C-alpha cells in the first residue's frame, strides 16, 4: 500500500530547472491528502520500519503526521524516545547565540529586526565582540552560533570574517570558543568560500517556510524575498566548500505538516546532490517579538502538535541532530529532550551586545523574547539532575569529521564511541573551571557513573587518563 501511494505521488513531483526550486507545492499537498487514507495496518508497518532506524520516506512521514489513531500516536512518541536514547544516549550538546549586528535590509513580518521597525540599531565593535565572548566563555560555552541581519554596507562579509577571527583568537582564562556556527543571510559561493576558509562550523539558515505563497506574503521586501535564492543557499554553500549545513523552519507561518515535508525534501535534495543532508534541523516556533506581526499568523502550533512534529522528525531522520532554542519554556524543553532534541542553547541573549547589557542590568531589545530565562549554570545543573550529560564537545569539526565523513560514522552507530568520552571530558573541564562545590560533586558522580559505559576499552582508558590530566589543569582533549 505504501509503495502504491509512493508511485502515484512520485509521478507528479517536479523541479523547476531554471530557478533551481526543488520544492513542489502540489506534490506536498497531494502527499498530505493521500496520507489521510493510509490504513492502520500500513501505519503499523511504517512504525516498525522507524523502530529499525531506517528513516522514513515522504508518504510514510505524511501518514504519521495525519494519523488520528491514539495508539499509533502513542507509538510515535515511544519510538522517538527509544531512537533518541539509542543514538544520542543521555548527552545534550550546549551552545549560545552571539548577535553581532541587527542592521537589516529585509522586511520579514515575523522578526523584530525587520527594516520597518524603528529602533537604535547596532553592530558590535571588535572590542565589544571580545566583551561578549568573554562573558560567554565565563559561562563555559565552547560553541556559539554567530547571528547577524542582512546588510551589505553595515554588515558585509568582511565584518563577519573579522568577528570570527576575533572570536577564535580570544582566550579568557581557560575559556575559548572552539566552534563558530554561522547564521547569516543567503549569499554567494564566493562568500561561502571565505566563511569556510576562516573555519565555520555549521552554516545555519532557516528556510522559515517552504510554502511559497506564505513565503511571498511574510517577506515584504529585501533580497530575502527571493524564495528560490534563499532555498538554494545550501547548494551554493556546498559549492563554496561548506559541507556542514543546518536547516530549519519557523513553525507557525504555514501548515506545520507541509513544513515537515518541505524539510525532508530539502534534506534529500542535498543528500542526492552532495551526498550529505542536514547536519542539524532547528525547530523554532513563532513567539512574540517587538515590531513583529505574530498576531497575523493562522498556523500557530500548539504544544501537542509541536511534540508530535519533533517526534516524527526524529523517526524520519534518526541521525540528524535536532536543535531547540530558548524560545521554548523550561517544561517544553524537558519534554522535547526526551523525544529527539540533541542540542539546546543555554543562558542565551538574543540581542546585539545582550550579554554585556545583562551584566550591567540594562533594558533589552531582543530579536525575540526568550522563555527560558535560567542561567547557563542553572540549565546545566538541572540537565544533570534529570540524568543528562551536558556536553561542550566540538570534536567533529576540529577533527575534520564533517559532511559525509560525519554522516557515515553517525549511520554506522560508531559516533557514540567518541561522543560519550568527549562529553565526559568537556563536562569535567566545565566543572573544574566554572562549577561551584555542589556542581563539582554532581559532575564527578555523573562522570563516574557514565565512564564504564564507553564500550571501546582503548578509548575508555584514554578518556580516564585524560580526565586525570584535566583535574591537573590540562585542557582540550578530544577523540
Ligand atoms: Fe532581517 Fe533575518 Fe529578521 Fe528577516 S529574519 S528581518 S533577514 S534579521
Ligand atoms: Fe557532536 Fe562529534 Fe562531539 Fe559527538 S563527537 S558530540 S557528534 S561534535
From TrEMBL:
InterPro entries: Aldolase_TIM, BATS_dom, FeFe-hyd_mat_HydG, rSAM, rSAM_sf, ThiH/NoCL/HydG-like
CDD domains for the chain: Radical_SAM (cd01335)
Keyword 4Fe-4S: yes
Pfam families found in the cross-reference section: BATS (PF06968), Radical_SAM (PF04055)
GO BP field: sulfur compound biosynthetic process; water-soluble vitamin biosynthetic process
Highest taxon, organism lineage: Bacteria
Keyword flag Ribosomal protein: no
Residue ranges annotated for the Biotin and thiamin synthesis-associated domain, each copy included: 282-390
Cofactor(s) in the UniProt record: [4Fe-4S] cluster
SUPFAM superfamilies per UniProt: Radical SAM enzymes
Entry-linked Gene3D superfamilies: Aldolase class I
UniProtKB keywords: 4Fe-4S, Iron, Iron-sulfur, Metal-binding, S-adenosyl-L-methionine
Molecular function GO labels: 4 iron, 4 sulfur cluster binding; catalytic activity; metal ion binding
Name listed for the protein in its UniProt record: ThiH protein
Species annotation: Treponema primitia (strain ATCC BAA-887 / DSM 12427 / ZAS-2)
Amino acid at each position: 500500500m505504501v509503495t502504491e501511494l509512493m508511485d502515484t505521488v512520485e509521478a507528479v513531483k517536479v523541479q523547476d530547472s531554471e530557478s533551481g526550486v526543488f520544492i513542489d507545492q502540489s506534490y506536498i499537498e497531494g502527499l498530505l491528502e493521500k496520507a489521510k487514507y493510509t490504513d492502520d495496518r500500513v501505519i503499523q508497518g511504517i512504525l516498525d520500519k522507524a523502530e529499525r532506524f531506517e528513516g522514513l520516506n515522504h508518504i510514510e512521514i505524511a501518514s504519521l503526521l495525519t494519523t488520528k489513531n491514539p495508539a499509533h500516536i502513542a507509538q510515535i512518541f515511544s519510538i522517538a524516545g527509544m531512537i533518541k536514547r539509542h543514538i544520542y544516549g543521555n548527552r545534550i550538546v550546549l551552545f549560545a547565540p552571539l548577535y553581532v549586528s541587527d542592521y537589516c535590509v529585509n522586511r520579514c513580518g515575523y522578526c523584530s529586526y525587520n527594516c520597518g521597525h524603528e529602533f537604535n540599531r547596532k553592530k558590535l565593535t571588535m572590542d565589544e565582540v571580545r566583551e561578549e565572548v568573554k562573558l560567554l566563555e565565563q559561562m563555559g560555552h565552547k560553541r556559539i552560533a554567530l547571528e547577524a541581519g542582512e546588510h551589505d554596507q553595515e554588515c558585509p562579509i568582511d565584518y563577519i570574517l573579522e568577528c570570527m577571527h576575533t572570536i577564535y583568537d580570544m582566550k579568557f582564562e581557560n575559556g575559548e570558543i572552539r566552534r563558530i556556527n554561522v547564521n547569516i543571510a543567503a549569499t554567494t559561493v564566493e562568500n561561502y568560500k571565505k566563511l569556510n576558509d576562516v573555519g565555520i562550523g555549521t552554516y545555519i539558515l532557516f528556510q522559515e517556510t517552504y510554502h511559497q505563497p506564505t513565503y511571498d506574503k511574510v517577506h515584504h521586501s529585501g533580497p530575502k524575498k527571493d524564495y528560490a535564492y534563499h532555498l538554494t543557499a545550501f547548494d551554493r554553500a556546498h559549492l563554496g566548500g561548506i559541507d556542514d549545513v543546518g536547516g530549519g523552519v519557523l513553525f507557525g507561518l504555514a501548515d506545520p505538516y507541509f513544513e515537515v515535508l518541505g524539510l525532508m525534501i530539502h534534506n534529500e535534495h542535498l543528500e542526492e546532490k552532495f551526498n550529505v543532508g542536514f547536519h542539524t534541523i532547528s525547530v523554532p516556533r513563532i513567539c512574540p517579538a517587538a515590531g513583529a506581526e505574530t498576531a497575523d499568523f493562522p498556523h500557530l502550533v500548539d504544544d501537542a502538535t509541536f511534540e508530535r512534529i519533533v517526534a516524527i522528525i526524529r523517526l524520519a531522520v534518526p541521525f540528524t541532530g535536532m536543535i531547540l532554542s530558548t524560545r521554548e519554556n523550561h517544561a517544553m524543553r524537558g519534554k522535547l529532550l526526551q523525544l529527539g532534541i540533541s542540542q539546546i542553547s543555554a543562558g542565551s541573549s538574543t540581542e546585539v551586545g545582550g550579554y554585556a547589557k545583562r551584566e550591567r542590568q540594562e533594558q533589552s531589545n531582543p530579536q525575540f523574547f526568550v522563555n527560558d530565562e535560567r542561567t547557563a549554570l542553572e540549565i546545566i545543573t538541572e540537565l544533570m539532575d534529570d540524568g543528562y550529560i551536558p556536553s561542550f564537545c566540538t570534536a567533529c569539526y576540529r577533527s575534520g569529521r564533517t559532511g559525509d565523513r560525519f554522516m557515515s560514522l553517525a549511520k554506522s552507530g560508531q559516533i557514540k564511541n567518541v561522543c560519550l568520552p568527549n562529553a565526559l571530558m568537556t563536562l569535567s573541564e566545565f566543572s573544574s573551571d566554572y562549577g561551584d562545590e555542589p556542581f563539582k560533586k554532581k559532575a564527578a558522580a555523573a562522570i563516574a557513573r557514565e565512564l564504564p559505559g564507553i564500550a571501546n576499552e582503548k578509548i575508555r582508558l584514554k578518556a580516564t587518563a585524560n580526565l586525570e590530566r584535566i583535574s591537573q589543569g590540562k585542557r582540550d582533549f578530544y577523540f
